[in-house]
Design brief:
The protein is α+β, with helices and mostly antiparallel strands. The chain has a domain of 113 residues: Aminopeptidase (3-Layer(aba) Sandwich). It is 28% helix and 36% strand. It has four helices and seven strands; from the N terminus they run E-H-H-E-E-E-H-E-H-E-E. The chain has a seven-stranded mixed sheet. The longest helix is centred in the middle third of the chain and has 15 residues.
Length: 162
Amino acid sequence: MHIRVATAEDWPAIWPFFHRIVAAGETFTFPTDLNEEDGAGWWMLAPPNRTVVAVDEQGTVLGSAKMNRNQAGNGSHVASASYMVDPEHGGRGVGRALCQYSIDWAREQGYAAVQFNAVVETNVHAVRLYRRLGFEIVGTVPGAFRHPSEGDVGLHVMHLAL
């Protein structure tokens, strides 16, 4: 697996799993009815932010991540990131590799920390991965996410000091 900066030419490979994940409404706070053009606007970030893809030896896009500052102004010293792995390629370490890449990127860019503002508490695989990589749950907003089958569940704020 290789991780590289995403280009506009990668979006057609990202869109199918991005759409599937977002439309399911189980893990992201994105509008579930995003169309392809709007989805690209939410995901394909311009520098100094970064969007990357994880690809296999054949060039198949396995997953993607976007990295950016968490807040503007006096909060701009903290990074954030989001990850999507094509469900067809899950369980192969793609999410872990993307997450580690984003941590390394944040460190190289001089960020003091990485913060996730809205990790759905029922997304147990992501929560477990983030904790294994050193993130701590610093708070949970009760009932802040309307899960389509679990009802209102909490959103974790997770933090990793760099």
